[in-house]
Each structure stands twice: as structure tokens, then as C-alpha cells.
Write a structure and sequence with these properties.
The structure holds two protein chains of two kinds.
Chain A (H helix, E strand, L loop, with lengths): L4 E3 L5 H12 L4 E5 L3 E4 L1 H16 L3 E5 L3 H9 L7 E3 L2 H11 L1
Parallel strand pairs in A: 1-3, 2-4, 4-5
Helix pairs in contact in A: 1-2
Chain B lengths: L2 H22 L5 H16 L4 E7 L4 E8 L3 H4 L3 E3 L2 H7 L5 E2 H4 L3 H13 L1 E9 L2 E9 L9 H58 L7 H15 L4 H13 L9 H6 L5 H7 L2 H9 L9 H6 L21 H15 L11 H10 L7 H16 L19 H10 L3 H4 L11
Antiparallel strand pairs in B: 1-2, 1-6, 2-3, 4-5, 5-6
Helix pairs in contact in B: 1-2, 1-7, 2-7, 8-9, 8-14, 8-16, 15-17
Classes of the chains: A alpha/beta, B alpha+beta.
Chain lengths: ~100, ~425
């Protein structure tokens, strides 16, 4: 998934819905690339919390890539980071996932 | 958690209150607003599931309003029943852990709902000492607890959300009351109009020849006033004046009214009392419209001062009086009387044109016949005058009107073959 811009209102709820659809189809690994994300507020955090929970329910793996430091700090502070795998970029994430088989 | 992280976390919580403030004060509809607020709360505390309930005091229960993260099948008919004694024990906007709550009657009554919601925290929402709703928060990611400091933040958030709910409920109550008042007003207005119509029917019933006269006069007057651009409320007042203009006839001897011709001088004097009597009756009524009693009093006045009861002249007469006077006379002309048959429309037109400037106002007369011409030509959506002129011969009117339009003084030069005696 490649969210863009500001993740700060209920419009971003589609991210949660998309992830749920993908997980429902049996996708086992989700990668969220934050390269184009400029701002995340508490509504955005809530949406990612929902994605984490759904990933766990489906026993899948959630990967975050291209995180800016400010976003990484916030995810760490609210405890979200413990439930995801963080990579520098998508390539790293894909290499890791290929290695897992 | 070390102190530095704790401090950072508290600063983040306080910053997040700005997000909450923005959401609850937004212009969104209440459900959207509260859902966004619930997302702010769940975002702050990393809670995947949460639910917001609204309290219905009459039903003594909390109904699910918005939620986050629950499956649709568990949301159906989700309610929390609230024993009245429980509300006092809740504590205002005080977050309760489920272990705290588990000993209460409220929890026992709703145990299955709390389990379905996987609730870990229950926060009753109070605004101005009034219980308005509640929030149920699920387990945090990783099963982390809600420490005391976070519960304090939750109390502040709950207070904000309670005020928003309370204000929305007040607004809804006001809107409901306004709607009820509007319905009541409409119903009273209908009763008022029906009563006036009944009076008009009673007045007209006194005279064998003037069935529906008041109704027609009112309709003609309204047509003219609308054409002249009168305001809706003023038009309504003139309509009522039209319906009641002959109310004074109620106390005049029926035999005199129906005699028609060969009236003696005392009988004429008696008949001429009716505008004054109408005024005396109606001036006791506090109408919601201006000048009704004045229109009625002067509907037999003339521009040349030869009318009654006050022999007023043109400049002393309002447009309302001039309209009513023409409408009354026109209906008298176009309906059968004991002493003559009804006039054709062209005859009535000639008569009004002849009396223009002495009895009838030029602007009002021109407006009236202009409406009639448009109705005959089919240039209007809704006919206001023609439907009342059944059995009146309307042929020849258009030609006459055209001549009159080209020559303003045409009516004066047309053969004056009928002297109209006003006795309506």
C-alpha cells in the first residue's frame, strides 16, 4: 500500500478497508510504504492500529517502509512499532519476505 | 516506561486534544463528528476497538451510536440497560476498568454486551450533571493496561465528547419543539381560516342572491393585491377583509337585504349601516394582519367622496380599500340580483371604465382587467378570477380591452347604455 499526503481524517479509513480486503483474500504479507506520507495525526494512528489488529487476526505480517523519523517516533511512542516490521525501503522488505519463504 | 518517555507520551496526549477539539467542533453531522472523535481516542491509546453509546432516558438504556473495529454482526441491536440507581454511582466522566465495574448491577445486567465488545474501559459521559452517553474502549494493542495518567487524559476527553453530545441533543430537542410549534401554528391557522370562512358563509346565507359573494370578493381582491406585488401577509389580511366585509349585514333585517329594489329611504339608510357595523364587530378582534377592520369599514367609499360611511376622498383611501371596493362592485355586477340579471364581462368592464376616477381607482381597475385578459389569453399558470365567472358571458371583452388599451379614454366614449346602481 502506498498512502499519500496527510493521513489525518476519516477519508483515510479506506486504507483500513483495503488492508482488510487484501487480508480477506489471503494475502499474508502487507507492506505499507510511507515515502509519500507527509503527516499523520491521531485519526491516522487509529487507522494503522486497526490495520495492525486485522493483520494479527489473519496471522499475517505487516511491514512499514520509508518511514520518516517523526513518524517512526510517534509509532514508537504509542507502541505500534512493536507489532510491525520496519524496513528502510520496499526492496529491503521484499528481500526479507523472500528470505522467509 | 521511563520518565522521559512518560513525559513525551503526556505531551503527545495533550497535543492530541487539539485533534479532538477540531473534530468535535467541526461542521460535520453528529454521527460523523463522534466517529472521528472516537478515532482520535483510539489513535491516542492504540486501541483497535471502541464504541460510543447515546443514553435514552425514557428507555433507560444506552444505544450504540458509532463504533470502531467491531464486526457488523455483533453491532446489531447493541444496547446497555442502565438501572436508574447506577447512574448516580458512575462518577462524572470517570473511566472504569471492567474489574472495577464487574461488581455492579449495571455490569451484571450487561455482561454479555461487554464481552462481545471486548471492553476494558467504560466511561460514562456527563455534561452539566446530565448523563448523556458512554464510551466503551477495547483492549490496547499488546494487551497493555490503561495507567492512571492515561485514565486522567481519558476523563478530559470524555468531558469534551459529553459536551458535544449534550449540545447536539439540545439542538435536536429545540428542532423537534420548533417543528411541533410549527405544526400547532399551522393547525391553529387552519382553524382560524375555517372559522372566518364559516362566518363568510353565514353572512352570504342571509342574502338569497349573494351566495359565495364574500368568497369571490376575497378571491378577486387577492388576485389584484398579488398582481400589485403585495407581501404575502398583507394579501392574507386583505383576503380575510374580503371574506368578512359584509359581516355587518348579519344584524340587518333579512327582508330589507332581500328586497332588492324600491327600498325606502329608511331601508337604504339601514343597509348603509353595514360597513360601520362590520367595523364595530371586527375592531374587537385582534387580527394578526394589519387594517382588516379599516378595509371593511371603507369598502363602500368612493374616490369622489360620495361613498359611505365617512365620505372619504381618493387621497384618504388606501389601496386595500380601493381593491376591496372594486372587487365588491365587480361581483355585484357579474351576479344576478333581484332587480336585474348579471352583466356580461364586457358590460362590467364598460361600467368600471365609466366610473374610473370617480368610484374606482384607475391603477386598481387597470390591474384587475389586465389579470382577466391574461387569464382569458391563457397567459397565467393559475386562474384566480375566471373560475368564479361561470355563466358570465366573457365574449367581446378582449376586443373591448384592446380598444381601451389603445385609447385610454375609450370607456368614456363607449355607449353608456346601462346605469349601474351599486347595491352590493
Amino acid at each position: 500500500m502506498l498512502p499519500k499526503g496527510y493521513i489525518n481524517d476519516m477519508g483515510a479509513i479506506s486504507l483500513e478497508q483495503t488492508s482488510e480486503q487484501l487480508l480477506g483474500k489471503g494475502v499474508k504479507n502487507l507492506i505499507v510504504n510511507f515515502a509519500d506520507v507527509q503527516f499523520i495525526n491521531t485519526i491516522g494512528l487509529s487507522i494503522f492500529t486497526g490495520i495492525v489488529q486485522k493483520t494479527q487476526e489473519h496471522k499475517s505480517l505487516l511491514c512499514f517502509t520509508n518511514l520518516k523519523k517523526i513518524h517512526l517516533d510517534v509509532f514508537e511512542m504509542v507502541g505500534l512499532i512493536k507489532h510491525v516490521k520496519v524496513f528502510k525501503d520496499e526492496e529491503d522488505a521484499l528481500t526479507f519476505l523472500k528470505g522467509r519463504g | 516506561m521511563n520518565k522521559k518517555i512518560q513525559l513525551k507520551r503526556m505531551i503527545f496526549c495533550i497535543e492530541s486534544l487539539v485533534d479532538l477539539g477540531q473534530e468535535v467542533s467541526s461542521a460535520k453531522v453528529l454521527a460523523e463528528k463522534m466517529k472521528a472523535a472516537l478515532y482520535v481516542v483510539t489513535g491516542i491509546f492504540s486501541v483497535p476497538t471502541a464504541a460510543l453509546f447515546i443514553y435514552h432516558s425514557q428507555r433507560k438504556r444506552l444505544d450504540l451510536f458509532v463504533d470502531k473495529g467491531h464486526r457488523d454482526k455483533i453491532k446489531h441491536d447493541m444496547q446497555l440497560f442502565v438501572p436508574p440507581t447506577s447512574i448516580r454511582r458512575f462518577g462524572m466522566n470517570e473511566p472504569h476498568t471492567m474489574s472495577n465495574l464487574s461488581k455492579t448491577k449495571f455490569y451484571r445486567r450487561n455482561n454479555n454486551v461487554f464481552l462481545k465488545l471486548q471492553a476494558k474501559i467504560f466511561i460514562p459521559l456527563f455534561a452539566k450533571n446530565e448523563f448523556v452517553g458512554a464510551i466503551a474502549l477495547g483492549q490496547k494493542l499488546g494487551g497493555l493496561p490503561y495507567p492512571r495518567a492515561e485514565r486522567d487524559v481519558l476523563r478530559v476527553i470524555a468531558h469534551q465528547m459529553a459536551i458535544t453530545l449534550h449540545n447536539a441533543q439540545l439542538f435536536l430537542e429545540l428542532a423537534k419543539k420548533a417543528s411541533e410549534n410549527k405544526k400547532l401554528f399551522t393547525s391553529m391557522q387552519r382553524i382560524y381560516h375555517d372559522t372566518i370562512q364559516a362566518f363568510a358563509a353565514a353572512i352570504d346565507a342571509k342574502d338569497d342572491y349573494t351566495k359565495d359573494h364574500s368568497y369571490r370578493v376575497a378571491s378577486y381582491a387577492v388576485a389584484i393585491a398579488r398582481e400589485l406585488g403585495w407581501k404575502k401577509n398583507d394579501v392574507e389580511g386583505l383576503y380575510v377583509a374580503g371574506l368578512l366585509h359584509d359581516i355587518g349585514k348579519i344584524i340587518i333585517d333579512r327582508d330589507i337585504i332581500n328586497k332588492g329594489e324600491n327600498l325606502t329611504t329608511p331601508e337604504i339608510r339601514e343597509i348603509k349601516r353595514h360597513p360601520q357595523i362590520s367595523y364595530n364587530i371586527l375592531s374587537k378582534v385582534k387580527f394578526p394582519w394589519k387594517n382588516v377592520e379599516h378595509f371593511v369599514r371603507h369598502h363602500h367609499e368612493r374616490l369622489d367622496g360620495k361613498g359611505y360611511p365617512d365620505a372619504l376622498t381618493s387621497t384618504q383611501l388606501t389601496d386595500g380599500v380601493k381593491i376591496l371596493s372594486l372587487a365588491d362592485a365587480f361581483d355585484a355586477m357579474t351576479t344576478d340580483r333581484p332587480y336585474r340579471g348579471k352583466m356580461a364581462l364586457s358590460e362590467a368592464f364598460r361600467e368600471v371604465m365609466r366610473c374610473k376616477g370617480t368610484q374606482f381607482d384607475t391603477k386598481i381597475s387597470t390591474t384587475f382587467f389586465n389579470i382577466l385578459r391574461k387569464e382569458l389569453n391563457g397567459d397565467v399558470k393559475e386562474q384566480q378570477i375566471l373560475p368564479h365567472l361561470h355563466n358570465v358571458d366573457v365574449t367581446g371583452f378582449r376586443a373591448l380591452y384592446l380598444i381601451s388599451a389603445y385609447e385610454e379614454s375609450a370607456a368614456d366614449r363607449l355607449p353608456n347604455n346601462k346605469q349601474f346602481i351599486l347595491q352590493s
